[in-house]
From TrEMBL:
Keyword annotations of the record: ATP-binding, Nucleotide-binding, Transport
Protein name as annotated: ABC transporter ATP-binding protein
Family per record: Belongs to the ABC transporter superfamily.
PANTHER family listed in its UniProt record: ABC TRANSPORTER, ATP-BINDING PROTEIN
InterPro entries: AAA+_ATPase (IPR003593), ABC_transporter-like_ATP-bd (IPR003439), ABC_transporter-like_CS (IPR017871), P-loop_NTPase (IPR027417)
Organism the protein comes from: Anaerobacillus alkaliphilus
Gene Ontology MF terms: ATP binding; ATP hydrolysis activity
Domain of life: Bacteria
Domain annotation ABC transporter: ranges: 6-234
Length: 303
Protein backbone atom coordinates (compact mmCIF):
# COMPACT_ATOMS: atom_id res chain seq x y z
CA UNK A 1 0.00 0.00 0.00
CA UNK A 2 1.22 3.48 -0.81
CA UNK A 3 1.69 5.30 2.47
CA UNK A 4 2.97 8.58 1.02
CA UNK A 5 0.86 11.43 2.38
CA UNK A 6 2.75 14.27 0.69
CA UNK A 7 4.89 14.19 -2.42
CA UNK A 8 6.71 17.32 -3.55
CA UNK A 9 8.33 16.95 -6.97
CA UNK A 10 10.51 19.47 -8.78
CA UNK A 11 8.76 22.34 -7.02
CA UNK A 12 9.75 25.83 -8.16
CA UNK A 13 8.56 29.32 -7.39
CA UNK A 14 9.60 32.46 -9.17
CA UNK A 15 8.47 35.79 -7.70
CA UNK A 16 9.17 39.04 -9.59
CA UNK A 17 11.71 37.24 -11.78
CA UNK A 18 13.57 35.87 -8.77
CA UNK A 19 13.74 32.10 -8.27
CA UNK A 20 12.77 31.66 -4.60
CA UNK A 21 12.32 27.86 -4.68
CA UNK A 22 14.68 26.07 -7.03
CA UNK A 23 13.18 22.68 -7.82
CA UNK A 24 12.83 20.81 -4.53
CA UNK A 25 11.77 17.22 -3.86
CA UNK A 26 10.74 15.35 -0.73
CA UNK A 27 7.92 13.19 0.54
CA UNK A 28 6.23 12.32 3.79
CA UNK A 29 5.12 8.91 4.96
CA UNK A 30 2.19 7.98 7.10
CA UNK A 31 2.88 8.19 10.84
CA UNK A 32 6.06 10.24 10.75
CA UNK A 33 7.02 13.64 12.06
CA UNK A 34 8.99 15.45 9.36
CA UNK A 35 11.06 18.53 10.13
CA UNK A 36 11.63 21.36 7.64
CA UNK A 37 14.68 23.32 8.66
CA UNK A 38 16.37 26.32 7.20
CA UNK A 39 17.70 29.78 7.92
CA UNK A 40 15.43 32.83 7.64
CA UNK A 41 14.62 33.60 4.04
CA UNK A 42 15.56 30.11 2.81
CA UNK A 43 12.06 29.44 1.45
CA UNK A 44 10.20 27.49 4.15
CA UNK A 45 7.09 29.67 4.25
CA UNK A 46 6.93 29.95 0.45
CA UNK A 47 7.07 26.14 0.20
CA UNK A 48 4.37 25.70 2.84
CA UNK A 49 2.14 28.29 1.19
CA UNK A 50 2.36 26.30 -2.04
CA UNK A 51 1.58 22.99 -0.29
CA UNK A 52 -1.53 24.36 1.39
CA UNK A 53 -2.73 25.99 -1.84
CA UNK A 54 -2.30 29.66 -0.85
CA UNK A 55 0.02 30.37 -3.80
CA UNK A 56 0.61 28.57 -7.10
CA UNK A 57 3.88 26.86 -7.95
CA UNK A 58 5.74 28.11 -11.03
CA UNK A 59 6.63 24.50 -11.83
CA UNK A 60 6.54 21.07 -10.28
CA UNK A 61 3.93 18.98 -8.58
CA UNK A 62 2.43 18.59 -5.11
CA UNK A 63 0.39 15.52 -4.24
CA UNK A 64 -1.49 15.05 -0.98
CA UNK A 65 -2.45 11.41 -0.41
CA UNK A 66 -2.04 10.85 -4.15
CA UNK A 67 -4.19 13.83 -5.20
CA UNK A 68 -2.50 16.47 -7.31
CA UNK A 69 -3.38 19.81 -5.74
CA UNK A 70 -3.64 21.46 -9.18
CA UNK A 71 -6.04 18.86 -10.60
CA UNK A 72 -7.87 17.52 -7.53
CA UNK A 73 -7.69 20.48 -5.18
CA UNK A 74 -10.75 19.62 -3.05
CA UNK A 75 -9.81 15.97 -2.55
CA UNK A 76 -6.23 16.95 -1.75
CA UNK A 77 -7.40 19.55 0.81
CA UNK A 78 -9.80 17.04 2.39
CA UNK A 79 -6.70 15.16 3.57
CA UNK A 80 -4.88 18.23 4.87
CA UNK A 81 -5.04 20.05 8.18
CA UNK A 82 -2.82 23.05 8.75
CA UNK A 83 -1.92 26.04 10.86
CA UNK A 84 0.13 28.31 8.68
CA UNK A 85 -0.21 31.67 10.29
CA UNK A 86 -1.75 32.07 13.77
CA UNK A 87 -4.91 29.97 14.13
CA UNK A 88 -8.08 31.98 13.53
CA UNK A 89 -9.85 31.87 16.89
CA UNK A 90 -12.61 33.97 18.40
CA UNK A 91 -11.38 35.05 21.85
CA UNK A 92 -14.83 35.96 23.21
CA UNK A 93 -16.16 32.44 22.54
CA UNK A 94 -15.23 29.29 24.45
CA UNK A 95 -12.95 26.69 22.89
CA UNK A 96 -15.97 24.46 22.43
CA UNK A 97 -17.99 27.22 20.72
CA UNK A 98 -15.07 27.93 18.39
CA UNK A 99 -14.86 24.29 17.34
CA UNK A 100 -18.65 24.04 16.90
CA UNK A 101 -18.56 27.11 14.69
CA UNK A 102 -15.78 25.75 12.50
CA UNK A 103 -17.26 22.26 12.27
CA UNK A 104 -20.55 23.86 11.18
CA UNK A 105 -18.74 25.54 8.29
CA UNK A 106 -17.27 22.24 7.11
CA UNK A 107 -19.09 19.49 5.29
CA UNK A 108 -19.75 16.05 6.76
CA UNK A 109 -18.33 16.54 10.27
CA UNK A 110 -20.06 14.25 12.75
CA UNK A 111 -21.28 15.80 16.03
CA UNK A 112 -19.04 13.45 18.02
CA UNK A 113 -15.92 14.71 16.22
CA UNK A 114 -15.71 17.91 18.30
CA UNK A 115 -15.39 15.94 21.54
CA UNK A 116 -12.89 13.59 19.86
CA UNK A 117 -10.54 16.40 18.80
CA UNK A 118 -10.83 18.06 22.22
CA UNK A 119 -9.73 14.79 23.84
CA UNK A 120 -6.93 14.31 21.30
CA UNK A 121 -5.31 17.66 22.09
CA UNK A 122 -5.87 17.36 25.86
CA UNK A 123 -8.11 20.41 26.33
CA UNK A 124 -11.06 18.66 27.98
CA UNK A 125 -10.88 20.44 31.34
CA UNK A 126 -10.74 24.00 29.88
CA UNK A 127 -12.77 23.65 26.70
CA UNK A 128 -15.80 25.52 28.10
CA UNK A 129 -13.71 28.53 29.15
CA UNK A 130 -13.40 31.62 26.96
CA UNK A 131 -10.45 31.48 24.57
CA UNK A 132 -9.19 34.87 25.80
CA UNK A 133 -8.32 33.18 29.11
CA UNK A 134 -6.16 30.54 27.36
CA UNK A 135 -2.37 30.47 27.40
CA UNK A 136 -0.61 30.59 24.03
CA UNK A 137 0.03 26.84 24.28
CA UNK A 138 -3.69 26.18 24.81
CA UNK A 139 -4.57 28.39 21.83
CA UNK A 140 -2.11 26.44 19.71
CA UNK A 141 -3.68 23.17 20.84
CA UNK A 142 -7.14 24.50 20.06
CA UNK A 143 -5.83 25.47 16.62
CA UNK A 144 -4.61 21.90 16.14
CA UNK A 145 -8.00 20.57 17.31
CA UNK A 146 -9.60 22.77 14.65
CA UNK A 147 -7.17 21.47 12.01
CA UNK A 148 -8.03 17.88 13.00
CA UNK A 149 -11.81 18.28 12.66
CA UNK A 150 -11.86 16.95 9.09
CA UNK A 151 -9.75 13.87 10.02
CA UNK A 152 -6.80 14.83 7.83
CA UNK A 153 -3.97 12.40 7.13
CA UNK A 154 -1.42 15.20 6.83
CA UNK A 155 -0.97 18.00 9.36
CA UNK A 156 1.20 21.01 8.54
CA UNK A 157 2.40 23.20 11.39
CA UNK A 158 4.46 26.32 10.83
CA UNK A 159 6.69 26.95 13.87
CA UNK A 160 4.35 25.22 16.36
CA UNK A 161 6.53 25.85 19.40
CA UNK A 162 7.24 29.51 18.64
CA UNK A 163 6.63 31.73 21.65
CA UNK A 164 5.75 28.88 24.02
CA UNK A 165 7.26 28.52 27.48
CA UNK A 166 9.27 25.35 28.25
CA UNK A 167 6.28 23.38 29.54
CA UNK A 168 4.18 24.50 26.56
CA UNK A 169 6.98 23.38 24.23
CA UNK A 170 7.11 19.98 25.92
CA UNK A 171 3.33 19.55 25.69
CA UNK A 172 3.31 20.53 22.01
CA UNK A 173 6.15 18.12 21.27
CA UNK A 174 4.33 15.30 23.04
CA UNK A 175 1.08 16.09 21.24
CA UNK A 176 2.79 16.06 17.84
CA UNK A 177 4.49 12.75 18.57
CA UNK A 178 1.23 11.31 19.89
CA UNK A 179 -0.66 12.33 16.73
CA UNK A 180 1.96 10.62 14.56
CA UNK A 181 2.50 7.47 16.61
CA UNK A 182 -0.99 6.82 17.98
CA UNK A 183 -3.18 8.40 15.31
CA UNK A 184 -0.98 7.60 12.31
CA UNK A 185 -0.89 11.19 11.03
CA UNK A 186 2.00 12.60 9.06
CA UNK A 187 3.07 15.82 10.70
CA UNK A 188 5.15 18.37 8.79
CA UNK A 189 6.79 20.82 11.16
CA UNK A 190 8.81 23.85 10.20
CA UNK A 191 10.91 25.28 12.97
CA UNK A 192 14.04 27.21 13.66
CA UNK A 193 14.35 25.50 17.07
CA UNK A 194 16.68 22.79 15.95
CA UNK A 195 16.88 21.16 19.33
CA UNK A 196 13.11 20.72 19.10
CA UNK A 197 13.33 19.11 15.67
CA UNK A 198 15.98 16.78 17.02
CA UNK A 199 13.67 15.63 19.83
CA UNK A 200 10.47 15.49 17.80
CA UNK A 201 11.17 14.44 14.21
CA UNK A 202 11.85 11.15 12.49
CA UNK A 203 13.22 12.73 9.32
CA UNK A 204 14.34 16.18 8.34
CA UNK A 205 14.78 18.19 5.15
CA UNK A 206 17.39 20.91 5.31
CA UNK A 207 16.67 23.87 3.04
CA UNK A 208 18.98 26.72 2.17
CA UNK A 209 18.49 29.45 -0.45
CA UNK A 210 15.56 27.64 -2.04
CA UNK A 211 17.34 24.30 -2.38
CA UNK A 212 16.85 21.18 -0.27
CA UNK A 213 20.37 20.18 0.69
CA UNK A 214 19.53 16.95 2.44
CA UNK A 215 16.63 14.73 3.40
CA UNK A 216 17.60 12.20 6.00
CA UNK A 217 16.51 10.33 9.08
CA UNK A 218 17.39 12.45 12.10
CA UNK A 219 18.93 9.40 13.77
CA UNK A 220 21.10 8.57 10.72
CA UNK A 221 22.13 12.17 10.34
CA UNK A 222 23.21 12.29 13.97
CA UNK A 223 24.92 8.90 14.03
CA UNK A 224 27.12 9.80 11.03
CA UNK A 225 28.45 12.64 13.12
CA UNK A 226 28.77 10.84 16.44
CA UNK A 227 32.09 10.70 18.23
CA UNK A 228 33.52 8.82 21.19
CA UNK A 229 35.37 10.60 23.91
CA UNK A 230 37.91 8.45 25.78
CA UNK A 231 39.44 9.27 29.15
CA UNK A 232 42.47 7.01 29.68
CA UNK A 233 45.50 6.83 31.98
CA UNK A 234 48.08 6.79 29.17
CA UNK A 235 47.09 9.12 26.35
CA UNK A 236 50.16 8.60 24.16
CA UNK A 237 50.01 4.83 24.37
CA UNK A 238 46.27 4.90 23.57
CA UNK A 239 46.89 7.11 20.52
CA UNK A 240 49.58 4.70 19.31
CA UNK A 241 47.08 1.82 19.58
CA UNK A 242 44.30 3.76 17.81
CA UNK A 243 46.74 4.68 15.02
CA UNK A 244 47.69 1.02 14.68
CA UNK A 245 43.96 0.26 14.31
CA UNK A 246 43.78 3.02 11.64
CA UNK A 247 41.41 5.14 13.71
CA UNK A 248 41.80 8.91 13.53
CA UNK A 249 42.24 10.71 16.85
CA UNK A 250 42.04 14.21 18.22
CA UNK A 251 43.06 15.32 21.70
CA UNK A 252 40.61 17.61 23.51
CA UNK A 253 41.12 18.60 27.18
CA UNK A 254 43.12 15.53 28.16
CA UNK A 255 40.68 13.21 26.40
CA UNK A 256 40.85 11.49 23.02
CA UNK A 257 38.11 11.91 20.42
CA UNK A 258 37.58 9.13 17.89
CA UNK A 259 34.81 8.25 15.47
CA UNK A 260 31.96 6.08 16.74
CA UNK A 261 31.26 2.63 15.40
CA UNK A 262 28.81 0.52 17.38
CA UNK A 263 30.23 -2.82 16.14
CA UNK A 264 33.87 -1.94 16.68
CA UNK A 265 33.86 -0.13 20.00
CA UNK A 266 34.11 -3.29 22.12
CA UNK A 267 37.11 -4.45 20.09
CA UNK A 268 38.89 -1.10 20.46
CA UNK A 269 38.29 -1.09 24.19
CA UNK A 270 39.59 -4.66 24.56
CA UNK A 271 42.74 -3.81 22.60
CA UNK A 272 43.51 -0.85 24.88
CA UNK A 273 42.99 -2.90 28.02
CA UNK A 274 45.10 -5.81 26.70
CA UNK A 275 47.96 -3.42 26.06
CA UNK A 276 47.85 -2.06 29.60
CA UNK A 277 45.82 1.15 29.07
CA UNK A 278 43.11 1.77 31.66
CA UNK A 279 39.91 3.22 30.17
CA UNK A 280 38.47 5.47 32.88
CA UNK A 281 35.53 6.79 30.89
CA UNK A 282 34.02 6.46 27.44
CA UNK A 283 31.30 8.92 26.35
CA UNK A 284 29.31 9.03 23.13
CA UNK A 285 28.95 12.58 21.87
CA UNK A 286 25.81 13.26 19.82
CA UNK A 287 26.07 16.56 17.95
CA UNK A 288 23.22 19.04 17.94
CA UNK A 289 21.48 19.80 14.71
CA UNK A 290 22.85 23.34 14.93
CA UNK A 291 26.34 21.92 14.45
CA UNK A 292 25.11 19.61 11.71
CA UNK A 293 23.38 22.46 9.95
CA UNK A 294 26.56 24.51 9.91
CA UNK A 295 28.39 21.57 8.34
CA UNK A 296 25.70 20.85 5.76
CA UNK A 297 25.29 24.46 4.67
CA UNK A 298 29.00 25.12 4.72
CA UNK A 299 28.86 27.60 7.57
CA UNK A 300 25.67 29.53 6.83
CA UNK A 301 24.01 30.23 10.13
CA UNK A 302 20.48 29.14 10.90
CA UNK A 303 19.41 32.55 12.23
N1 LIG B 1 5.97 37.96 -2.29
C1 LIG B 1 7.30 38.03 -2.33
N2 LIG B 1 7.93 38.94 -3.10
C2 LIG B 1 9.27 39.00 -3.15
N3 LIG B 1 10.10 38.19 -2.46
C3 LIG B 1 9.53 37.26 -1.68
C4 LIG B 1 8.11 37.12 -1.56
N4 LIG B 1 7.86 36.09 -0.71
C5 LIG B 1 9.06 35.63 -0.31
N5 LIG B 1 10.06 36.32 -0.88
C6 LIG B 1 11.50 36.10 -0.68
O1 LIG B 1 11.74 34.72 -0.82
C7 LIG B 1 12.72 34.25 0.08
C8 LIG B 1 12.16 33.10 0.90
O2 LIG B 1 11.18 33.59 1.82
P1 LIG B 1 10.39 32.67 2.84
O3 LIG B 1 9.48 33.56 3.63
O4 LIG B 1 9.80 31.54 2.12
O5 LIG B 1 11.57 32.13 3.75
P2 LIG B 1 11.51 31.39 5.16
O6 LIG B 1 12.50 30.29 5.08
O7 LIG B 1 10.13 31.04 5.50
O8 LIG B 1 12.06 32.49 6.15
P3 LIG B 1 11.39 33.11 7.46
O9 LIG B 1 11.62 32.09 8.51
O10 LIG B 1 12.16 34.35 7.66
O11 LIG B 1 9.94 33.34 7.13
C9 LIG B 1 13.14 35.45 0.89
O12 LIG B 1 14.31 35.97 0.35
C10 LIG B 1 11.97 36.43 0.72
O13 LIG B 1 12.42 37.75 0.80
Amino acid sequence: MNNTTLAVKGLRKVINGKEIIKGIDFDLRQGEVFGFLGPNGSGKTTTIRMIVGLIKPSAGKIEICGYDIQKDFTKAMDNLGCIVENPELYPYLTGWENLKLFSGMMKGIKKTRVQEVVDLVGLTSRIHDKVRTYSLGMKQRLGIAQALLGKPKLLILDEPTNGLDPSGIREMRELIKFLAVEEGLSVFVSSHLLSEIQLMCDRVAIISRGTVLQVNEVRALLSEQQQLQWRVDQIEEAIRIFTELEIGTEIVNDTILTSYNEEEVGKWNKKLVEQGVTVKEMTRKVPHLEELFLQVTGGESID
